[in-house]
Each structure stands twice: as C-alpha cells, then as structure tokens.
Amino acid sequence: MTYSKEYGGEAHVALLDVFLSDHDILEPDVLFVRPENLERAEEGSIRGGPDLVVEISSPTTRVRDLVGKKGLYERHGVPEYWFVDLESDEIRVYRLEEGRYASPVLLGRDDMLESLVLPGFSAWVGEILGPPTA
Fold first, then answer.
1. Mean pLDDT computed over 1-13
2. Which pairing describes strands 45-47 and 17-19: parallel, antiparallel, or unpaired?
3. Does the global pTM surpass 0.90?
4. What is the CATH number of domain 2-129?
C-alpha cells in the first residue's frame, strides 16, 4: 500500500473479483494495478488482468494456485505472479516472457524480492513470510 502512495496505482488485499473473462473470475490474495492500467479498476472488481498477482499457499488451495490459477493468469497476460509458499518457506516469482511464464525464480527467506512490474519495489522475503514456523 505504501508503494501505491509513492508511485501511484492500486493495491488490493483479498475479496476483490478479477474478471479475466466472462468465464474466468478469480479472487487473488493480493493484486496490484499500475497507474496506467487503472481503467481496469471498477467498484469492487478488476476487469482484465492486474499487473501483479500474489497468492498465499494453504493446504486446500496449493494445487489450484500453482496449476489452475497460474495457468489462467498466464493465459490472460498477468505480467508477474508471486506464489508465497509458506510450506517451503519461499516465494516463487513467475514472469511472463513471450506470452508464457518462465521457470520461477525461487527466493528464500534471506533473499531480496524485486519486481520487474513495480519499479523501485523491493522487500526481504523473510519480512513477507513472517517469523519462521519451525
């Protein structure tokens, strides 16, 4: 949220419908729309792909997030998809290259996460993951 105050755009946390198409409607855990794409934002929803989507793992949504949702985000041109994997204590960063997500960049607790979609954004992965569980 601090990023959007400095650079513009909108960040949203959960419970916001993303209409990728009439049939593909998702609710990412976190999303960001850059200032130049704010026309996609409507009252309570986003029409079209956000610029960044973040999904946080849970045992019940893991496969859906890594297969189904990731495939839809890729197909609808979401430039960057982060999967926050609490089980593995890492973040997988998928970036669109020539219309497909390249192999993920795997970032551990001591790594710095930088976004190609959000210039000037960086954060320690450990800060995002929170305190270690073990």
1. 88
2. parallel
3. yes
4. 3.90.1570.10
